[in-house]
Specification:
four-stranded antiparallel sheet; 12 strands; alpha+beta; 2 domains; Pnp Oxidase, Chain A; homodimer; 6 helices; seven-stranded antiparallel sheet
């Protein structure tokens, strides 16, 4: 597998300084993100739905109820776009025009592939759980036959994709810098709070995956 | 303007307990969010791009470079889907099947309307700045003629939309609750850090919009 993605007209951003085809950097964004925005076409119109996801090597994994319209829209071979965005900060310039955001974003285009093999689908669902909280699958009951039958698992090959990154301070025009006034960045972080026990919990303490998660993500 | 959105096949979610057409609640989500995922169709394929946005009453505002392919894709009358998602927590059940996320999400479908009137476009861009940080426009230089000419402003009417909300603890099956073990929620918050001065700043203190912003968003 190539270390860079296949460029395409769709994923070659015009503002090339923000675009990259580096596979490792894109995977780091995918592994850090929690929600993907999945785009598909229905009767010629676009739809964008937030979904949990996972990654298995060079493919992205999605899942949905077998009965969902989404599942029919993402049938084998349907064109799909999966975008994962991490927001890192608000970029506040002296001019309104140069206001921006710092972010890292991966846009994947490809065709949906329904995973029909039962064992492969079950394994994909374990990866989806471990994507939410690493190590969580080992602490929980795996899907049973009925649950697996209700769940469609969809893979999107990580072949045609692009990474866009904006970081650093605002870039004002010289005249605006000379006029003075504050400019800078407000950093933003997705922060994990203290775990909240379920009301029907039996008093067991949070398991390792949960206590670790909190420590990793808090500033 | 109706207090509820027009339902449509696209925005009437099957899991109706999570779907709502309440306009006020949906606007609260749009006003809290910072990034929209904008879906459009190009040559029959879907694309999803993260964008800053704003709201002006009953329409959503987007902007892009006049030269961008995106701007051509969002030409007058093009079908567009704008989705804003706020992630509130990770829902960790005893069964892998019932793992989920707490979130609030608004999905808007409509047709793009290019704002061609110069004054109206300028006003929309001010709203985009104030959406990032309320009050910021009063502290900054407005767009000049050249900047405005470079910027396409696109409105999407907030007519056909849906709000989906998942909140609260995991909902495990009785047998799994009886088997015991921890279950619960890890809350997630987008947290603003201390403002970072631009390296070319003149030592002015952060203005009111910036100091206020930090206080509002920190836990």
């Amino acid at each position: 597998m190539s270390e860079t993605f296949t460029p395409s007209a769709e994923t070659t951003a015009r503002r090339s300084e923000r675009a990259s085809l580096d596979r490792e950097a894109a995977y780091a964004v995918l592994d850090e993100g929690l929600v993907a925005h999945v785009g598909f076409v229905l009767d010629g119109s676009p739809f964008v739905i937030p979904m949990a996801y996972g990654r298995d090597g060079d493919r992205l994994l999605l899942h949905a109820s077998v009965a969902a319209r989404l599942t029919r829209a993402l049938s084998d071979g349907a064109p799909v776009c999966v975008t994962v965005t991490l927001l890192d900060g608000l970029v506040l310039a002296r001019s309104q025009f140069h206001h921006s955001m710092n972010y890292r974003s991966v846009v994947i285009v490809g065709k949906a592939e329904r995973i029909s093999d039962r064992d492969e689908a079950a394994e994909a669902l374990v990866r989806l759980v471990d994507h939410i909280v690493p190590g969580r699958s080992a602490e929980t009951r795996p899907g049973n036959r009925v649950e697996l039958r209700q769940t469609a698992v969809i893979a999107v090959p990580l072949e045609t994709a692009s990474l866009k990154v904006r970081s650093g301070p605002p870039l004002d025009d010289e005249e605006d810098v000379a006029s003075g006034g504050w400019a800078g960045v407000i950093p933003l972080t997705l922060t994990a709070g203290e775990p909240i026990d379920s009301p029907d919990a039996d008093g067991s303490p949070p398991p390792p995956s949960v206590t670790r998660y909190g420590r990793r993500d808090r500033p």
